[in-house]
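Example 9 (inverse folding). The structure is encoded as follows.
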C-alpha cells in the first residue's frame, strides 16, 4: 500500500468515487481512496438509483444536470455500463400551491437550458398511464429523469479514476486522522499510516465518525428509508411488450416516488412518522445489511399510493428495501473546505447521490485544484452552518427535512423545527411587540410586527402573503417618521494590528477608509467573482470593524483565516456586538435627544464613538433603507438599556419597529442589491455595478485585481438592471426568465413590492448591449408573461439629498 499521497479520500460510495475520478480528470493523479469494506458498502448499495434535475436551488439543479449527463461519458471512458434508463418523469401537482411551484421551476429551467414542460391531466395519462389523475391540476415533465444501476455506476467512477492514475484500497479501515504542524495529515489505517497533504471526508453513513477523528462535528444524521418492489404487473408488462418503459412519477401529495423495476414497479416513501437511525453513532460493522421491514410507519402512505396508482393494490410485494442514508439539516450536501481546519475537505451528506454525486465531485475537485468552484455553491457549502450547531439541533431539523422532502418549498416559508434556538436580548421585547419571527444562521430575526388581529404567523405563498399590509405599514413609518430595527443580521468582524490596513487593502478590492470614516467594498476571489459585500469602518489606524451578511460568517471567516498575515488579528464579533438601526426623516432628531455628542455634525459615511444614554456606542451614518439613518453598535450586554433609551426618545415621533420584510422592500426603492441575490460568487463586480466601489487607483495587488481590470477593459456581456413590473398578485422572487423579442435573454435576481412607490420592482441581468432606460421586456411569473420596463432612476431620494444631506 502507498504510504504517501496528495489526497486521501475516505469512503468508497458513489460520492467518494466521484471525487476521486474528478481529481484525476482535473489533473491530480497522486490520489487514493480508502474504503473499510468493499466499494458501495454504505447507503450506495441499497439506493433506489433514481436521478432527476428538479431542485429549488438553480445551481444545485445545474449540478444535477451535469451529473446526469456525465453517465454516458463514464460509459464511454470505461466501457462499463451504468445501467442507464432515461425514461423521463413527471412531478404531480394536486393543488394550486404545488402547481405554482412547478410553474416557478419550469420558468427557471428556461434560462438553464433544461427542456422541461408543464403538462395537463390528459398528457399525464399518456406519459404515465398507471397514474390516477383525479384531482391533479398538472405536472412538470422532465425528459432527463431516470434511474441506473448504483453498483455499476460506482464501479464505473472507480475504473475511470484508476485509469487517471488513482489508487483504491479496499478493506482498509481508517482508525485515526492526525494533523501535522505543517497542515498535512497522517491517516492511520489497519494496514499502516498514510501521509496525505489533503483529506476528503466522503464517509457517508460514517461521516460523523470520520469527522470526529479530527475533532470536527458534521451536522448530519441518518434516516431510515423504505421502498418496495412489486411482482410483475400486467399493465407494465404490456408497456414493455410494446417496446416502452414506464417513466418516473413523483407524487408530492402522497410523499412518494414511483418507477418501473423489471416487469413491476418500485415505490418509495418519505413518510411523516419517519425514524432517525443510529442516533448515537453509526456502527462500524454495519455495511451490506438492511433494517427490519417496518410497514406500520408507511401504512397511510401505501393507502394513498393505492388511490394514485390503482395497479399497486393488486400487485404482490417482491422485496422490501429498508436502509439508512444521511441528511444535513436542510437536505443539501456538505461540500468544501472545513472552516478552521487546514487541508480538510467535506464531501458528505449527499442524500441524492445519483442525482448530485457527479456535481459534488466536480465542485470539490475544482475547489481543491483551481482554488474555487466555477459557480456559486453556497447551497451545499459546509460553511453555511456555524460552530453553534449541535446534534440536538441537527436531529429535529433532519427529521423535518425528511418529512418535507416532497412538500412545496415556498420563498417566504419559515420552518418551525428546533426553534427558537439562538436569540438576542431583544427576543422577549420584540415578541411582546408582535414580532413574527424568521431565522438566519440559527438566529431568530423579526420578519415583521403583527398588530391587532393580524396573524402571528405568515402563511407561506408564492403570491403576496398575509404579511403584505404589516410590511407596508412599517415601510411608511420609516419613510414618513422613524423606524428602528436590530443590526443582529449583520456579520461583524474586528480587525486589529499594525498591518491591519495593509492586510485589508489586499483582501478587499475597495478603498480602505481613514479613521472616522467607512467605505463600501466588494471582496473578490482570484477569478474576480464576488465573495463578499462589506462595510469597512476605520475606528483607528490599527482597528477596523467589518460588517457583511450574518449568514455568511463561517464562509467569510474561512477566507479571512486562509489569507491571514503577520501582525493582524481577526475576531468574529457577530454575537458579541449588537445594536440598532434608526432610519427615517426623524432619525437625527431622535438620536440627538439621547446623547450630548453632536450627531448633526456627522457626515454621510462618518463613524464616531458616542455615549447614548448610559451606553458607549459606535455610530455609523449609513442605512440599508436608503434613507437618513444610523447604525448603532454596542456591547451585547448593554443592548436592552440602549433599546429603552432609543425607544423612549422615539415615542414622541411615532417610532415604529420594522423587520426584514420591510427592509427588503425599502432597499428596492434605491435598487440596492442583496447578498446571495444580486451579489454572489456567480457574478463579478462589473456585472453587478459593484465595480464603482473598486479602488483601481490604490497601489496594491488586491485579490482578484487582474480579473477586475480585465472586466473594466473589455466590458461584460451582461449587466444588472432594475425593472418596474406590471405584476398581479405575485411579484418576482428570483430566477424568473426575462423575455425580449420572443426569446429568454436574462433572469431575475430578486424582486418584490415597493410599498413606498406602490410598484412591483425586480432586479435582473440583461445583455449589456440591450440595456437602455425604458426598454420593454416581459418577465415570466408563475406561468404568466408580465410586461416590465427598465428603470434607472431610484424610486426614492433619487438625488440622495435625504440619505447624504
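The amino acid assigned to each position is listed next.
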Amino acid at each position: 500500500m502507498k504510504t504517501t499521497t496528495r489526497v486521501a479520500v475516505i469512503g468508497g460510495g458513489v460520492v467518494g468515487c466521484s471525487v476521486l475520478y474528478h481529481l484525476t480528470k482535473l489533473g491530480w493523479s497522486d490520489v487514493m481512496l480508502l474504503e473499510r469494506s468493499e466499494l458501495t458498502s454504505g447507503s450506495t448499495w441499497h439506493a433506489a438509483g433514481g436521478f432527476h434535475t428538479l431542485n429549488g436551488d438553480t445551481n444545485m439543479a445545474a449540478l444535477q444536470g451535469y451529473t446526469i449527463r456525465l453517465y454516458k461519458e463514464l460509459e464511454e471512458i470505461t466501457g462499463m455500463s451504468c445501467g442507464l434508463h432515461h425514461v423521463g418523469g413527471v412531478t404531480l401537482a394536486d393543488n394550486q400551491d404545488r402547481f405554482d411551484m412547478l410553474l416557478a421551476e419550469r420558468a427557471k429551467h428556461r434560462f438553464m437550458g433544461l427542456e422541461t414542460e408543464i403538462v395537463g391531466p390528459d398528457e399525464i395519462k399518456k406519459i404515465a398511464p398507471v397514474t390516477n389523475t383525479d384531482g391533479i391540476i398538472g405536472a412538470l415533465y422532465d425528459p432527463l429523469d431516470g434511474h441506473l444501476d448504483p453498483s455499476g455506476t460506482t464501479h464505473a467512477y472507480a475504473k475511470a479514476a484508476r485509469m487517471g492514475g488513482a489508487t483504491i484500497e479496499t478493506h482498509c479501515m481508517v482508525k485515526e486522522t492526525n494533523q501535522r504542524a505543517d497542515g498535512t495529515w497522517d491517516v492511520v489505517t489497519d494496514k499502516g499510516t498514510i501521509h496525505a497533504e489533503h483529506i476528503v471526508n466522503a464517509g457517508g453513513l460514517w461521516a460523523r465518525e470520520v469527522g470526529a477523528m479530527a475533532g470536527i462535528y458534521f451536522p448530519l444524521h441518518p434516516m431510515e428509508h423504505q421502498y418496495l418492489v412489486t411482482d410483475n404487473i400486467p399493465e407494465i408488462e404490456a408497456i414493455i411488450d410494446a417496446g416502452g418503459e414506464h417513466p418516473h412519477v413523483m407524487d408530492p401529495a402522497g410523499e412518494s416516488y414511483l418507477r418501473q423495476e423489471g416487469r413491476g414497479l418500485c415505490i418509495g416513501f418519505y413518510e411523516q412518522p419517519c425514524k432517525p437511525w443510529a442516533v448515537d453513532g453509526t456502527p462500524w460493522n454495519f455495511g451490506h445489511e438492511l433494517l427490519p421491514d417496518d410497514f406500520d410507519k408507511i401504512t397511510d402512505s401505501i393507502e394513498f399510493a393505492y388511490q394514485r396508482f390503482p395497479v399497486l393494490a393488486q400487485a404482490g410485494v417482491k422485496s422490501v428495501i429498508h436502509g439508512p442514508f444521511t441528511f444535513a439539516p436542510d437536505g443539501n450536501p456538505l461540500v468544501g473546505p472545513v472552516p478552521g481546519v487546514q487541508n480538510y475537505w467535506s464531501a458528505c451528506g449527499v442524500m441524492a447521490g445519483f442525482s448530485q454525486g457527479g456535481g459534488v465531485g466536480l465542485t470539490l475537485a475544482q475547489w481543491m485544484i483551481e482554488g474555487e468552484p466555477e459557480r456559486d455553491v453556497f447551497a451545499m457549502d459546509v460553511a453555511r452552518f456555524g460552530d453553534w450547531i449541535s446534534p440536538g439541533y441537527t436531529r429535529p431539523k433532519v427529521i423535518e427535512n425528511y418529512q418535507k422532502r416532497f412538500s412545496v418549498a415556498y420563498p417566504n416559508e419559515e420552518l418551525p423545527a428546533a426553534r427558537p434556538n439562538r436569540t438576542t436580548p431583544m427576543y422577549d421585547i420584540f415578541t411582546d411587540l408582535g414580532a413574527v419571527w424568521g431565522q438566519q444562521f440559527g438566529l431568530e430575526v423579526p420578519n415583521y410586527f403583527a398588530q391587532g388581529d393580524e396573524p402571528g404567523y405568515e402563511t407561506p405563498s408564492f403570491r403576496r402573503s398575509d404579511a403584505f399590509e404589516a410590511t407596508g405599514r412599517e415601510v411608511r413609518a420609516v419613510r414618513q417618521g422613524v423606524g428602528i430595527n436590530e443590526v443582529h443580521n449583520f456579520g461583524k468582524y474586528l480587525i486589529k494590528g499594525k498591518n491591519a490596513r495593509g492586510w485589508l487593502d489586499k483582501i478587499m478590492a475597495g478603498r480602505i477608509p481613514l479613521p472616522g470614516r467607512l467605505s463600501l467594498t466588494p471582496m473578490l476571489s482570484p477569478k474576480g467573482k464576488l465573495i463578499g459585500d462589506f462595510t469597512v469602518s476605520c475606528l483607528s489606524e490599527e482597528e477596523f470593524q467589518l460588517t457583511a451578511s450574518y449568514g455568511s460568517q463561517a464562509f467569510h471567516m474561512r477566507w479571512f483565516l486562509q489569507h491571514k498575515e503577520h501582525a493582524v488579528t481577526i475576531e468574529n464579533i457577530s454575537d458579541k456586538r449588537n445594536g440598532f438601526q434608526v432610519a427615517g426623516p426623524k432619525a437625527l432628531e431622535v438620536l440627538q435627544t439621547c446623547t450630548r455628542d453632536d450627531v448633526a455634525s456627522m457626515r454621510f459615511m462618518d463613524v464616531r464613538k458616542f455615549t447614548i444614554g448610559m451606553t458607549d456606542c459606535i455610530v455609523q451614518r449609513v442605512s440599508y433603507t436608503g434613507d437618513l439613518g444610523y447604525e448603532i453598535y454596542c456591547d451585547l450586554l448593554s443592548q436592552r438599556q440602549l433599546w429603552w433609551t432609543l425607544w423612549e426618545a422615539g415615542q414622541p415621533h411615532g417610532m415604529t419597529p420594522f423587520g426584514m420584510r420591510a427592509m427588503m422592500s425599502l432597499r428596492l426603492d434605491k435598487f440596492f442589491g442583496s447578498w446571495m441575490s444580486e451579489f454572489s460568487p456567480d457574478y463579478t463586480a462589473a456585472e453587478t455595478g459593484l465595480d464603482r466601489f473598486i479602488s483601481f487607483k490604490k497601489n496594491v495587488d488586491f485579490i482578484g485585481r487582474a480579473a477586475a481590470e480585465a472586466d473594466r477593459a473589455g466590458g461584460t456581456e451582461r449587466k444588472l438592471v432594475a425593472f418596474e413590473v406590471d405584476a398581479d398578485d405575485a411579484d418576482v422572487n428570483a430566477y424568473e426568465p426575462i423575455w425580449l423579442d420572443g426569446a429568454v435573454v436574462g433572469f431575475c435576481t430578486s424582486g418584490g413590492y415597493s410599498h413606498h412607490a406602490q410598484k412591483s420592482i425586480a432586479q435582473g441581468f440583461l445583455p449589456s448591449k440591450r440595456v437602455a432606460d425604458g426598454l420593454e421586456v416581459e418577465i415570466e411569473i408563475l406561468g404568466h408573461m408580465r410586461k416590465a420596463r427598465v428603470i434607472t432612476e431610484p424610486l426614492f431620494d433619487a438625488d440622495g439629498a435625504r440619505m447624504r444631506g
